[in-house]
Amino acid sequence: MKKAATIIVLILIVFTQNVKAQQGYQPTEENLKNREWFQDAKFGLFIHWGVYSVMAGGGDLGIAEWIMNNKQIPIKQYEKLPSFFNPVNFDPAEWVSMVKKAGIKYITITSKHHDGFAMFDSKSSDYNIVDRTPYGKDILKMLKDECDIQGIKLFFYHSQLDWHHPDYYPRGSTGKVFTGRPESGDWNRYIDYMNTQLTELLTNYGEVGGIWFDGMWDQWDADWQLDETYALIHKLQPGTLIGSNHHKAPFPGEDFQMFERDLPGENTMGFNQTGTISELPLEMCETMNGSWGFNIKDQDYKSVKRLIQTMVRAAGYGANFLLNTGPMPNGKIQPENVDTLLAMGKWLEKYGETIYGTRRGPLKPTDWGATTQANDGTIYIHLMNLKDENLLLPSLQSKIKSLTYFDSGEKVKFKENENGLLLKIPKEKQDRIDTILIIEI
Ligand code: JFZ
What we know:
Elements: H1 2-17, H2 29-41, E1 43-47, H3 67-70, H4 75-78, H5 92-101, E2 106-112, H6 129-132, H7 139-150, E3 153-159, H8 187-203, E4 210-214, H9 226-236, E5 241-244, E6 257-260, E7 282-286, H10 304-316, E8 319-325, H11 335-351, E9 359-360, E10 369-373, E11 379-383, E12 390-393, E13 402-405, E14 413-417, E15 420-424, E16 435-440
Parallel strand pairs: 1-2, 1-8, 2-3, 3-4, 4-5, 6-7, 7-8
Antiparallel strand pairs: 9-10, 10-11, 11-16, 12-15, 13-16, 14-15
Helix pairs in contact: 5-7, 5-11, 8-9
């Protein structure tokens, strides 16, 4: 009996560790170039927008794009939502201009979330924005056209988990009986459906920056057939970057690794269980309040200071910061979010060279702050938590040629000894958000 249990555990381990993906994948030159672009870009806007925005969280904190599952709304009832999703004030030029002013370099928008509703003109199912809403227009196409005009890259978030499609069967841990779907279905047909929608996305929208997958965690033992899906994407657009929010070390075929609401290697949320930080480009995503989709009640906005500091710490790991907003059902971005993003843009206007185009610096981010490094070797020290005027940093192990304040160009007083690098930063030189020093070694 004990032996049988051990064998089962072993089989489970083998299965969950060896998800079949695009084995032997070799990224093309173009793909590698895009990875560099991605790492230089550093700041993206995540957009969770769907028919769920009409419900605005339903008066509960922490619910938005999950409302169908959390409130157990059957498909037959949820299908009424598209009929009153009519974002008449959606103005892609306004969104993208704001994005540019905020210093954001790319947008990742939901093409389909777990509710299964396609926010684009899909021919594989009429459960989409063009066929089912009074608005009747393809917002992804409108956004892409504007992004092309203003030089912003567009990525698509695409949910592998689906609470609407009958062939998403067997069911996983969510979207179960309440949906009213028959207890049967053809999994392979579901995967075909998903691949067909992905083909539409990678064929009809010009150059796609990347595909941001999510949902495998709904059922680990399902046959996700990543080998086929990833190969298909890389065949259609070899330069497209694939990432997946499965919270594990990357699978073959993925081009970047992501961390959800945590800095790389941290696990304060409890779901970034992999401690593995791969050699792939990295990205961390974060919410501005506690919700991804629009929640009318949630006013727990993170301060500009906190968001900038998180972005800087992410950069200290070499990771991008993908900051989320959930647009309202009228097509406008929440004004509080616009204010925050523009304030971040103001900061980046001044300090952008210490973030854009950099890679992780020589000292790992920790309590006192982070370091970033430009490709000419210049190191930026970001002091974000000064307790007093003296700070001891670990030694940089090389001779310091110069150490100056970013703001004034004045010399920083420092001493090197066997304990490390001792800095003296007088109170009047300290910045509330980030005191930046430039160091040449
Ligand atoms: C996922 C989505 O479910 C969510 O709606 C949002 O799109 C976010 C960016 O990604 O969030 C998850 C996914 C899995 C877990 C937690 C949050 N998990 O396994 O604990």
